[in-house]
Amino acid sequence: MRERTVRRYYCDHCKKAGGSRFHMESHEKHCTKNPDRSCRMCDQLGECVTPVPVMHDAMRANGMAGLREASNRCPACMLTAVRLFPMVYPEPWPAKMTDAEESAYLMQSDATALDYKAECARFWNDLPRDDPGY
Ligand SMILES: [Zn+2]
Ligand SMILES: [Zn+2]
């Protein structure tokens, strides 16, 4: 019999985990729950990432339209702002929500009516390239 201990790497910002340090480091760097993330979609535009508090101020002032402008129309940054927006969280937060359910909840909640697919379509329409899948 052989025993093997498998290393697991856990994102500091969300519940994602994996066995590849390389992949998890890349995920964590771009995780949409990481307030200091770097953004590959912004890289495509040659834009700098807008700080999350700036995006939140724009959301409070002008909702999704404000967020879209503040994020330079970057869907990944918009998703980050929505996922980190403090006011949409119900009390108490449903403990059993999966990441997918949580994202779905945030995207349909009144405070953060983000249509991520539509924002992505808008983004890639403005910048026609292959969708990298996030
Ligand atoms: Zn993560
Ligand atoms: Zn971005």
> How many β-strands, per DSSP?
2
Strand content: under 5%
What average pLDDT do the residues reach?
82
Bound molecules: zinc ion
Query: Which class do the helix and strand fractions yield?
Result: mainly alpha
The total of helices stands at 6
- Poorly predicted regions are none
Q: Strand order within the widest sheet?
A: 1-2
Radius of gyration over alpha carbons? 16 Å
| Secondary-structure element string | EEHHHHHH
Total separate domains: 2
Largest sheet features: 2 strands, antiparallel
Distance between the termini: 41 Å
The residue fraction in helices comes out at: 40-55%
Overall geometry: elongated
Descriptors for this entry?
3% strand, binds zinc ion, 2 domains, mainly alpha, 134 residues, elongated, two-stranded antiparallel ribbon
Task: Explain the overall architecture.
The protein is mainly α. The chain folds into two domains: 1-31, no CATH class; 35-126, no CATH class. It is 49% helix and 3% strand. It has six helices and two strands, in the order E-E-H-H-H-H-H-H. A two-stranded antiparallel ribbon has the order 1-2. Helix 3 (52-70) packs across helix 4 (75-83) and helix 4 (75-83) runs antiparallel to helix 6 (116-126). The radius of gyration is 16 Å and the shape is elongated. The model has no long low-confidence stretch (mean pLDDT 82). The structure holds zinc ion (ZN) (2 copies). One zinc ion (ZN) binds next to helix 1.
